[in-house]
Input
Amino acid sequence: MKFDVLTLFPEMFEPLRESIIGKAIEKKLINLNLVNIRDFSKDKHKKVDDTPYGGGAGMVMRPDVIYDAYQSVKQEKAKVIYMSPQGKTLNQQMVEDLSKESHLIILCGHYEGIDQRVLDEIVDEEISIGDYVLTGGEIPAMVLIDSVSRYIEGVLKQDSIQEESFSNGLLEYPQYTRPEIFEGKIVPEILLSGHHQNIEKWRKDRSFEITKKKRPDLLENK
Ligand code: 4FM
Output
């Protein structure tokens, strides 16, 4: 999977080089290419934004600069995603579907917005990570890259994909590790029994119970 990210703040993506996603980048399972939109400004002061036509507060990102940044990475099979609170709210099914693409170009806005004409020209899908407003699309882009990368072959240890929350539409069962007694609290006895069928049944039951208690909406069409 290739991710091209069009952003004014490529350094915000450094955290992705840690941990599991960092390893996946090193192993070339994913290719993360950060494109600084500012590099495509033709202005001698490297300006990328301007005041809004019609007046009003703040600055709007110029369409020509963003278009040139896009042209530098676009390829036949690429899907262009714009991170915005106006998009469809991301869920695990959308993440799984996107993981089947080979090339995602993610456009991150900042300030008050992006000129509508370039959005109309290049964006295939507008995606939101939730109903709240951030200062830019960079953190949402990182959320997208992290969640999609987990579905790329070799990124996670084999069985961790199947077992997790949402893969079966349910929340995860509780996990325990050593010590066997912590602050007077013991580990559920069945997990120490070595009886794999009983453990599996116990975990399924806990998943249902937790989902019913915390997220009953997830059980609605089940
Ligand atoms: C997006 C600020 C574009 C400025 C934003 C511009 C968001 C979200 C979000 C802020 N993105 N889900 N929620 N973006 O708040 O995706 Cl130009």
